[in-house]
Amino acid sequence: MLLNFEMKTILDTSNVFEYLTEIKYCNLSDKDTSNILVINAKNFNLAIEFSDGRQLLVKQERHNALGESKGEFWAAWRIANLVEQFPILGAKIAGFLPELLHFDPDNSILIVNYLSNYCDLSRYYDREHLFPTQIPQAIGQLLATLHSQTFQQLDYQRYLDPTIKPHQDRERETSYSAIDIIHRLMRITPQVFRKMPLECLQFLKLYQRFPSLTQAIAELGEAIVPSCAIHNDLKLNNILLDLDWESPESKIIRLIDWERAIWGDPAFDLGCLLGSYLEIWLEGLAISNLLSINESLQLAITPLELLQPSLLALVQSYLAGFPEILSARPDYLDRAIQFAGLALVQRIEITIDERRTFGNCGIIMLQVAKQLICTPRAAMKTLFDRDFIQLVNQ
Questions:
Q1: How far apart are CA 316 and CA 258, in angstroms?
Q2: Would you state the torsion angle of the CA atoms of residues 121, 123, 128, 134, taken in this order, to the nearest 10 degrees?
Q3: pLDDT tens, 325-344?
Q4: Contact 232/269 with Cβ under 8 angstroms?
Q5: What integer pLDDT is reported at residue 7 of this predicted model?
Q6: Distance, CA of 59 to CA of 41 (rounded, Å)
Q7: CA 45, CA 202: separation in Å to the nearest integer?
Q8: Distance CA 35, CA 98 (A)
Q9: By the 8 A CB rule, do 199 and 118 touch?
């Protein structure tokens, strides 16, 4: 399980302008005429709007008591270098990525242009409760472009392969890869149980009651095929939606937070995104001791039927842009569905870590994850309201 430690940062509202002045991104006098917003998330971010209209996002990793960080910004910087070094790839995807301006590896600080005319997709869905298929279609097209253009390309692999370590912290950067998640689940020992709070124990005990699940997860780990550049942390709140997305000139979306990007299995990206959509359904369940699991699922605030067109549009758009993946890997969609289940298991872990709770909602989410991981072909028909043959032939 994940553990929380008190983490510190170098920059805050009192000294960020001194830092920006030192690296020549502003003058110290701009402090009196600029607006600054603290965005307290996984990283400690400062959004700054200058009087001349410029907007910057200063991102910084949190440091532990020893002054150490995970070094995750190296991955985001490598992606920026990748599209710069290879113009053909850059021409296809650079416009959908953050515009990185400055990287300070010694202090784990990254500066990008702030996109005030975008909102994260998770908030859009939560606010509007609408699911237009144009949005997942755009996501599928972009993801297919990233995966297909880098698929089995050795030059790109040299930039991103975790076995090629351009920095001493490279091993830490893959701590959230599919392999790491699976290894963590497979290393549950009696010693682990003695260290866990009650909420974690309830999850682990229930998880271990399903030997078919642990076996399927082990087999999924063996089936991982790193073969292209992947985002490796693809979820709805890492996708920005253009506020004017319905305009014909709009690119609709951007993918942000590339700190965990690696050379990996493309099915993990697609699966994580499917899992993120399913969280909308599963986090709005009707929970009561009087309801069965099926009744809770059917009475969710956002029913699965409302999400099915988006799930289908995402996968069909992806396959239209990268049809070769099914020839290279006939089991590709099965693996993506299994990774969607793995993403739900990871969400349970994160919820336990952040909220110290594992209730009925978590139990039902684990049951759904089990179905996705253990019986992906049957789950496919439920998710998309059609079977495998219908899905790939449309």
A1: 24
A2: 0
A3: 999 999 999 999 999 999 99
A4: yes
A5: 54
A6: 10
A7: 34
A8: 21
A9: no
CB atoms within 10 A of CB 175: 13
Looking at the DSSP assignment, which residues form a beta bridge with residue 240? 120, 254
Please count the other Cβ atoms lying within 10 Å of the Cβ belonging to residue 2. 13
Element (H, E) at 341: helix 332-355
3 state SS of 39: strand
Please, what sign has the CA dihedral across residues 146, 147, 149, 151? positive
What token pair was written down for 240?
């920005």
Closest CA to 231 of 294, 283, 276, 284: 276
Instruction: Classify residue 325 as exposed, middle or buried by CB count within 10 Å of its CB (0-12, 13-18, 19+).
Output: buried
Nearest CA to 276 among 250, 255, 259, 252? 255
Report whether 20 contacts 67 (CB < 8 A): no
- Asked if 17 and 51 touch (Cβ cutoff 8 Å), the reply is no
Interhelix angle 211-222/332-355, nearest 10 degrees: 120
Token digits of residue 317: 């758009």
**In 3-state terms, what secondary structure has residue 289?**
coil
pTM: 0.89
For residue 40, the model assigns a pLDDT of 73
At 264 the pLDDT is: 93
Interatomic CA distance for residues 394 and 309, integer angstroms: 14
Query: 55-60 and 35-40 as β-strands: parallel, antiparallel, unpaired?
Result: unpaired
Helix 266-282 crosses helix 134-150 at what angle (to 10 degrees)?
A: 160
**Cβ contacts of residue 41 below 8 Å, gap of 6+?**
none
Regions of the chain where pLDDT drops below 70:
1-8, 65-68, 162-176, 186-200, 394
